[in-house]
Design goal:
Layout (H helix, E strand, L loop, with lengths): L1 H18 L41
Length: 60
């Protein structure tokens, strides 16, 4: 019984390893943000504790 379970584990491991073989397809590169600038500040810039943020007028 232990040999059968060992054989099943071995075969499943082999299937997983075969699935990880590189097929030569290029890996997609992730885009990286280089810079960000604020063109105009939001109209409301001061807040009291608990007030929801208001980004009206903000241009990035």
């Amino acid at each position: 019984m232990k040999k059968v379970i060992g054989l099943i584990v071995l075969l499943l491991s082999l299937v997983v390893l075969v699935g990880c073989i590189d097929t030569g397809e290029p890996t997609p590169t992730e885009k990286e943000l280089v810079a960000i600038t604020v063109k105009s500040a939001p109209t409301q810039v001061t807040y009291e504790l608990g007030t929801a943020i208001n980004l009206a007028g903000l241009q990035v």
